[in-house]
Amino acid sequence: MWNALPPTRRHFLKHVAGMSALAVPGMSFVQSLKAAAPTLKKQNKSLIILWMGGGPSTIDIWDMKPGSKNAGEFKPAKTSVSGIEICEHMPSVAKQMKHLAVVRSLTTTEGDHQRGTVLMNTGRSPNPLTQWPHLGSVTAQQLSPKDLDLPSFISVGGTAAGIGPGFLGMTYAPFTVRNAGQPPENMSPPKDANMVRRTEMFTALETDFLKTRGAAGEAAKAHRDIYAKAFGLVAGPAGKAFSLDDERANWEKYGNNNFGKGCLLARKLVEKGAVCVEVDFGGWDNHQGIFKALADQRLPTLDKAMGALVEDLVQRGMWQNTVVLWMGEFGRTPRINQNAGRDHWARCWSVVLGGGAIKGGQVYGSTDSDGASVKDNEVKIGDLFATVYKGMGIDPNAQIRDNLGRPTAIAGDNVKPISALFG
User: Fold this and answer.
1) Is 194 exposed, middle or buried (0-12, 13-18, 19+ CB in 10 A)?
2) What is the pLDDT of residues 216-259, one digit of tens each?
3) Within-domain flag for 1
């Protein structure tokens, strides 16, 4: 594999239930922690990623081509912004378009699912020598306050697209919530276990270890902090943040389904202090019967949840501190194939973002009349990542060190934020 799967919740929490909590980190963990030394910390900024695994057909959603041979079955509809039209099956998001920006001129290089997923979640093409960290891991490394009770990076409904923290190490690995609204696995204290005594014993042993390890003390302290957070999730109030029982009044507003509840949980988690939450909504690999699949299920589910999420963040005064990013691993072909579907297409496609310092109510870039190539204002993946980071107040040129000790900018080299998206 190009990027190893992130540590699972079981790996993160099982140490609390048994004596394996006493294991100490290896040298690779020590080196990862040194590489992850943050250069910037800010409070109250967050990122919500809406991940559309499979490759959504952006020509049928955000970049309609009425009158073209590639137009498909859907009609464009007006939005809250004069002159901007999106798919007729997205009425809730259309009302929130004044808060969102559509980038219609993204061009990427990977048309394979796995390689495209790595690219879009790390900003780099797969490389067997370097495991680049997930966008959420970098965001957590840059923004997480030291006293945060929750995991700083949380993946809802999936495993952060299968991408881990890479060379940043376990500290910034995604914490996976399989089913929004249900307690995460391994969150209940083990039966017949005295968690207070376990916590006291663990703390005493870790403190003694710190006194005897000299230069390794920094890594050991981080190790202790990770497991202290795990104890807090199991036995403390922080774990209650994952419940949606107190949000029942909003279940129907978001759509009483997995993705809708995932978006609702994302809003609640960033409200509680989580730095990055990714919500997974797969099923977009529509090589056949694409229009029925989109109209019957994909788009109504997406529209209701995404529209409610943006509306809530705005109404609760969280929009200026929360960037929302909608994306998949690539788009789909302008040409409709013989099975009434669309195939993989990375040459030109759309992503949507808003919140933070990003100015909504606009479209950036365009494709030609048939959606086959970029017409103007081409955007590369590094430019997109730089825009997302700047939207959260993070310097895209902030340096981290990879697994070989080389300094590298978090958004990549020679990249520029899209200046038109900042008012």
Assistant:
1) exposed
2) 555 555 555 555 665 555 555 667 889 999 999 999 999 999 99
3) no
The structure's pTM equals: 0.84
H or E segment and range at residue 158 = none
256-284: buried (b, 16+ CB within 10 Å) or exposed (e) per residue? Answer: ebbbbbbbbbbbbbbeebbbbbbbbbeeb
- The CATH number covering residue 200 comes to 3.40.720
- Answer whether residue 39 is part of any domain: yes
Distance between CA atoms of residues 107 and 183, nearest Å: 39
Rounded CA separation 324/157 (Å): 17
Report pLDDT digits (tens) over 270-326: 999 999 999 999 999 999 999 999 999 999 999 999 999 999 999 999 999 999 999
Provide the sign of the torsion angle of the four alpha carbons 42, 46, 52, 57, taken in this order.
Answer: negative
Backbone phi, psi, residue 218, to 5°: -60, -45
Provide the Cα torsion 235, 241, 245, 250; round to 10°: 180
How far is it, in rounded angstroms, from Cα 169 to Cα 137? 9
Quick one: tokens of 29?
Answer: 């963990």
- pLDDT for 35 equals 41
In which residue are the tokens 């365009």 written?
Answer: 366
Amino acid, single-letter form, for residue 309:
L
CB atoms under 10 Å from CB of 396, counted, come to 19
Q: HEC string of 68-112?
A: CCCCCCCCEEECCCCCCEEECCCHHHHHCHHHEEEEEEECCCCCC
Q: How many domains does the chain have?
A: 1
Over its C-alpha atoms, the chain yields an Rg (Å, rounded) of: 22
Give the residue numbers spanning the domain of 352: 9-421
What is the pLDDT, as a whole number, of residue 203?
64
Residues in the chain with pLDDT values less than 70 = 1-43, 185-203, 205-238
Whole-number pLDDT of residue 376: 98
Reading the block at residue 32, the tokens are 């990862």
Residue 224 lies in a domain: yes
Place of tokens 């430019």: 383
Residue 3 lies in a domain: no
Longest alpha-carbon distance in the chain: 73
pLDDT at 32: 41
* pLDDT in the model for residue 147: 77
Q: CA geometry: angle at 153 spanning 148 and 158, to 5°? A: 145
